[in-house]
Amino acid sequence: MTAPLKHAVQLPAERVRTISFNEASARTRVGLLLDAGSFVEFIGPEKREVSPHLKIFDLPEQFDDGIVVGRGRLDATPVFVAAQEGRFMGGAFGEVHGAKLTGLLRAAREIKSMPVLILLDTGGVRLQEANAGELAIAEIMRAVMEARTAGVKVIGLIGGRSGCYGGGGLIAGCCSALAVSETGRIAVSGPEVIETNRGFEEFDSRDRALVWRTMGGKHRRLLGAADVFTDDTVQGFRDAALELLGLVGAFGGDKLKAEQVRLADRIRRFGTCEDAVDIWAAEGIAHAESVPDLPADQFISLANKIGRTSRDAR
Amino acid sequence: MEDLSFQHRARERAGGTRQTAIIGVVASGNLEVLVERILPNAECRLEIKTAAAGFGEVWNAVIVDFVERYSPGGLKFSINDGGARPDTVSLRLAQAVRLIEEDGQ
User: Fold this and answer.
1) For residue A180, which of A140, A236, A247, A137 has the smallest C-alpha distance?
2) pLDDT band, very low/low/confident/very high, at A2 (cuts 50, 70, 90)
3) Separation of alpha carbons A275 and A289, rounded Å
4) Among candidates B26, B80, B94 on the partner chain, residue whose Cβ is nearest the Cβ of A4
5) In chain A, where the domains are located
6) Do B49 and A45 touch (CB under 8 A)?
7) What is the C-alpha separation between A63 and A171, in angstroms, rounded?
8) What is the mean pLDDT of residues B29-54?
9) In CA terms, which of A80, A225, A294, A296 is 20 to 30 Å from A109?
10) B39 has pLDDT over 50
């Protein structure tokens, strides 16, 4: 083995940001998404605020309980940021994990002027933590809405390997706006949960193409759940976050009413569709069946032409 | 879960000025290493919580090799292990030293 390098070659931030967002760890995502060197972590791993529940199950802990929270700058604008580590217990919300995000959102509510970026990468509640995990989801949803009511923009960035499921899907639904990549799936019940409860005929969780076209980023963008679709790079998510911070307007009761109308309209138009492809065809997309194969740049121009947005709602 | 602890003398102090660094995640076949510069210059300590019990001898062999190769004097390593193979452990330990040898905080 060769001797360890004493000094790594410093690459320009733009070049480093071409790496896959999906494959990067939560820490790498945060470090590269923000302006170089600007991230300051709150309750870092050296504080060892680990889960109080996992040892009961003889399960390994992680020093940050699977979520990195802190502040930094995005193109010079101060922001709060939270990133879930999707590889630690599927990015699931436990008591400490959830409390770190709740605390960050409450800080944003008090300060009012700093947006919050949430890099969701989660299967939902950590079931070993049961009610504590469920309560965490409820507290986070309330904290998101309180922060938004105080004028804070809360942006969800979804492109991790665990997707955004369960309570994570509910939190995503509370955000001011979402950006998503192709692999960033968004739903509440995941494929295996649906199959377990409703049967193989309802949803075949092993049919990857079905999973992706039903819950994947392209479908979420075309339906308007996500306002921006990006290629799977850290730079893509950085650009998407900046774009969304520019798009998100004021929040109030009118927005919530508009969101209710948008969702009611969606179920009225597409409620009888059997498959996502039927929805795309109903939206007037020629060769709807080819959407899953479109490269990111072609898909983005299609989505910008035909896809819905929730810009006036949410 | 099994807790293991190793204490070694190191030839020299680890370079750089950073006080802490962290690398890796706790997942199947993976581990996280938190390293802190909190010990006297000639000492090195490793504290391990592992999901795979009964591998103390293998850990000892990996760590003796690591201390000999990198001389991580002054460093305390805290490890949460999800059942990583010895080569992955060696890699993460080397990455942790590499990170804390950077300049900065």
Assistant:
1) A236
2) very low
3) 11
4) B94
5) 15-250
6) no
7) 24
8) 97
9) A225
10) yes
- How distant, in Å, are the alpha carbons of A35, A250, B37 from that of A111? 21, 16, 34
Question: For chain A, what is the mean pLDDT?
Answer: 93
Q: Tell whether ipTM is more than 0.90.
A: yes
Q: CATH: 3.30.230, 3.40.1620, 1.10.10, 1.10.3470. Which one for B2-100? A: 3.30.230
What share of chain A in percent tops pLDDT 90? 90
Within 8 A of B49 by CB-CB distance, chain A residues are 60-61
Tokens in use for A143? 């904290």
| Inter-chain residue contact B34 with A27, CB threshold 8 Å | no
Name the pTM for this structure: 0.95
- Distance (Å, whole) CA A31 – CA A26: 9
Contact B23, B56 (CB under 8 A): no
Beta-carbon separation of B22 and A60 below 8 A: no
Residue A3: its pLDDT value, please?
Answer: 47
In chain B, where the domains are located: 2-100
Interface of B with A (CB under 8 A): 1, 15, 20, 22, 25-27, 30, 32, 34, 36, 49-51, 69-70, 78, 80-82, 94, 97-98, 101-102
For residue B94, which residues of chain A lie inside 8 Å, CB to CB?
Answer: 4
Question: What pLDDT digit, counting tens, does each position of A30-73 carry?
Answer: 999 999 999 999 999 999 999 999 999 999 999 999 999 999 99
